[in-house]
Design goal:
heterodimer, A: alpha+beta, Aldehyde Ferredoxin Oxidoreductase Protein, subunit A, domain 2, Aldehyde Ferredoxin Oxidoreductase Protein, subunit A, domain 3, 25 helices, 40% helix, B: alpha+beta, Alpha-Beta Plaits, two-stranded antiparallel ribbon
Chain lengths: 646, 165
């Protein structure tokens, strides 16, 4: 049976390691990756556990297809209770780590406890050791990875590490692998730091059996062609994600000056073509890199062209870094974006959260809520490039009162700063919004308001809403694998039909996170990319597991409800401004001031938003307060959780 | 003339799909350590170089084999191992200047690229064609064209500089 994969429970306090097989009935219910992580998190943590404490459990996993003959399934998923939000912490990253972990013998890890001294976990062909990492503490993300290779005498070792930000318990520190593959947003690197865990290092040459190798190989060829024939994938493979920034900013969907504008002007220097030019000048004509087994290769390679970091090799920047260090802070200069991007990658902290928090502090400075006394003399004005770079450093190393305060996360910081500061904090559930502005796109606004890990685009964003797809295409996508005959609108400024779209995408993204497939190869980016209909074949040929599109949908719905149960257990309340499914009131009161005619002058109408949210709850099988109904849990077979099978 | 594997490492994105499909094609198993092709990486500089058998005309592996288990297949112009004769001494692994002869610790066998009998899967799956399967004379013609382009560009730039003086 190809699915004879293992899970390891590692206790860093006691050094105890237990290895168990993953039962097939658990696989059928939760598949793997994020879904199985959600099950493990719900079963291996107690209500109210301290996210910084030894009782928090850190899950590290690959999707069920990871390390099989299915392309673009290299995703590593990491989950724990988030230090940033106090709710679900969940990060998904590309690179080469999860496949290596699979060939080293493990698909899932559950890490608990706290090591007495800085340590790293070394996994090698079925064996797990906890080793001394005192000499690695303090090293940057790449320094630590290369040092581990030298230490183990093996240049093929793949490590997932936390950087200095994780060690310093910055609430949104990332787990990182490679140059820039980041498990971002919810502070999973901070959880590593709190456990004195510098790294998980893997090296393996164990076989992963393929159920039907000939068919798997042939189907993979078709799968790849379906992905790479999409125009959006080709653009991704040439310009990387910066092309999304270019399109969104010119249209008026980018936050600027925290939340004061929805477009960053005079941004030629960070347009995708300009970034591409820098990549070409510094790395030559072939400057795109791929994650394991992926033919889209959307990671741009470059060297920082000038300044104090000149010549440093880096990957990206993703559109998120253009937004974080270019748009939000109104510093649209390539060098600022590239250096900011490089620093957060080396420190191991989330670019979006960092940029958002700095731009929030800048607005507070503009409003006089923060003064030069608070900033130790730093001029924190919008547009000040040096201040942006300086603040990244201060936050990572918790330098000065402001650096230390901001590193605790927006909500904690707002309580310390006081006055009206919370009003200006653009967050949901304690996580800062990403760099985009959703005031003209109600569907996207509902997505960030209800996302399971906070304000984020990667949990349910109906991004294809912006393509104005023809009705028949919309209908084809959204009425499968479960029937839907309610309204659908191709108009992104509309409210009707959006709750179903958000619900559909929530399940779609959960499904790919369970399978281990990258979201760029799904309906996230293009209407023709693989979907529920295509996944059963990939799954069957590679693992032998027979599932229908509807079965996969049910898994996704099950796991989403389990995440919701975890959040409710940890304090999610529908209308709580800190832990609820709500937007910052500015979304409802401050109209957009820039952008295309269909964007300018818009707010999210509060009453219509509430109607959308209520409908969304209904689709999810929740009651009016957003709590899953007992019949829903029963239908999905999770009415007895925690069941403690794993 | 039989075609040959031609690797242009500058085009490689480092994704290692070639390793995956090679192992699945030959052994029906996902495990890059079973792959005949291997991407060597210097991640700190973004440099990726796929390495595979060059099917040498005067092959050291063939010459060193004490039991004559390695022979040349003229039709596909490749070097092949006869496992009925091979004694697993790994002399070929030791002498290969490219590290292209590997040893599988699970099956306890040496293994190398066999060009998938004329349809190399690494080439089939590489959309950048960092690994290509071409006639050996095409390789030098393509390289000549690229080099000539560089020379003429440099010539034009030099002429432009002279004109400015």
């Amino acid at each position: 049976m190809p699915l004879n994969r293992k899970i390891a429970y590692i206790n860093l306090t006691t050094g105890d390691i237990q290895i168990k097989p993953i039962p097939i009935e658990i696989r059928k219910k939760f598949l793997g990756g994020r879904g199985l992580d959600a099950y493990l998190l719900y079963n291996n943590t107690e209500k109210g556990c301290d996210p910084y404490g030894p009782d928090n459990a850190l899950m590290v996993s690959g999707g069920i297809l990871t390390a099989t003959c299915a392309s673009a399934t290299a995703r590593t998923h990491v989950m724990a209770k988030s230090p940033l939000t106090g709710l679900l912490g969940s990060s998904n990253m590309g690179g080469f780590f999860a496949p290596e972990m699979a060939w080293a013998g493990f698909h899932h890890l559950v890490i608990k406890g706290k090591a007495k001294q800085p340590s790293f976990i070394y996994i090698h062909n079925g064996e797990i050791e906890i080793r001394d990492a005192r000499d690695l503490w303090g090293l940057s993300v790449t320094e630590a990875q290369w040092a581990i290779r030298d230490k183990l005498g093996d240049q093929e070792v793949k490590s997932m590490v936390c950087g200095p930000a994780g060690e310093n318990l910055v609430a949104w520190a990332n787990n990182m692998t490679g140059i820039k593959n980041a498990g971002g947003r919810s502070g999973m690197g901070c959880v590593m730091g709190s456990k004195n865990l510098k790294a998980v290092a893997c090296r393996g040459s164990m076989d992963i059996k393929i159920a039907h190798p000939v068919e798997a190989l042939e189907f993979n060829k078709r799968f790849i062609e379906q992905i790479t024939s999409a125009k959006v994938s080709q653009t991704q493979g040439t310009l990387g994600t910066p092309f999304i920034w270019g399109a969104t900013n010119s249209w008026g969907g980018i936050r600027c000056r925290n939340f004061q504008y929805n477009q960053c002007e005079y941004a030629d220097d960070i347009e995708p073509e300009r970034i591409d030019e820098i990549c070409e000048e510094t790395m030559g004509p072939y400057h795109m890199a791929g994650c394991f087994g992926c033919q889209v290769h959307c990671r741009a390679q470059h060297k920082i062209p000038e300044g104090p970091y000149a010549g440093r090799y880096e990957e990206g920047p993703e559109y998120t870094s253009q937004g974080a260090f270019g748009g939000e802070t109104d510093t649209p200069r390539a060098l600022t974006v590239l250096v900011g991007n490089h620093l957060v990658d080396q420190y191991g902290m989330d670019n979006l959260e960092t940029g958002s928090i700095i731009s929030w502090a800048m607005e507070l400075y503009e409003k006089g809520i923060l003064t030069k006394k608070d900033t130790d003399g730093l001029d924190l004005s919008f547009g000040n490039d040096d201040a942006v770079i300086e603040m990244i450093d201060r936050i990572c190393y918790r330098k000065g009162w402001l650096g230390d305060t901001l590193a605790k996360g927006g909500i904690q910081a707002s309580k310390i700063i006081g006055k009206d500061s919370f009003k200006y904090l653009i967050q949901v559930k304690g996580m800062s919004n990403l760099h985009s502005d959703e005031r003209a796109t109600p569907g996207l606004a509902l997505n960030i308001a209800t996302g399971s890990r906070g304000s984020d685009h990667l949990r349910s964003r109906p991004a294809i809403d912006l393509y104005h797809l023809p009705q028949d295409v919309m209908r084809r996508i959204y009425s499968s694998p479960v029937p839907y005959d309610g309204p659908l609108s191709s108009e992104h400024t509309e409210y009707i039909g959006k709750p179903w779209q958000v619900f559909w995408h929530e399940n779609c993204y959960m499904a790919v996170d369970c399978l281990g497939i990258c979201k760029y190869h799904t309906t996230f980016l293009g209407a023709t990319l693989p979907n529920f209909e295509d996944w059963p074949k990939v799954l069957y040929y590679n693992t032998g597991l027979e599932m229908t599109p509807r079965d996969i949908w049910d898994v996704a719905e099950r796991c989403n409800n389990l995440e919701r149960l975890f959040n409710i257990r940890e304090g999610l309340k529908r209308d709580d401004p800190e832990k609820g499914d709500v937007l910052n009131p500015r979304y409802h009161t401050e109209p957009t001031r820039r952008g295309a005619p269909d964007v300018i002058g818009r707010v999210i109408e509060k009453d219509k938003f509430l109607e959308m949210r209520a409908e969304f709850y209904k689709h999810k099988g929740c009651d009016e307060y957003g709590i899953p109904k007992s019949e829903t849990l029963k239908r999905l077979g999770i009415d007895n959780e925690p069941s403690h099978i794993l | 003339m039989a075609k040959a594997l031609y690797i242009d490492y500058q085009k490689c994105t480092g994704c290692r799909l070639c390793e995956l499909v090679c192992a699945v094609k030959h052994d029906g198993i996902s495990n890059p350590s079973r792959s005949r092709i291997k991407v060597m990486k210097w991640e700190s500089e973004g440099l990726y170089v796929p390495m595979s058998c060059q099917q040498c005309q005067d092959a050291p592996c063939l010459n060193v084999c004490p039991v004559k288990a390695i022979s040349r297949d003229e039709e596909l112009d490749r070097v092949m191992v006869d496992y009925d004769v091979c004694i697993g001494c790994r002399s070929c692994v030791a002498v290969c200047p490219f590290g292209a002869m590997s040893f599988n610790i699970i099956d306890k066998q040496v293994f190398k690229c066999d060009l998938c009998d004329g349809d190399p899967q690494c080439v089939r799956f590489c959309d950048r064609k960092a690994v290509d399967y071409v006639s050996p004379d095409e390789v030098s013609i393509d390289k000549k064209r690229v080099a000539a382009g560089r020379l003429s560009k440099a010539g034009k730039e030099a002429a432009a500089l002279m004109a400015e003086l």
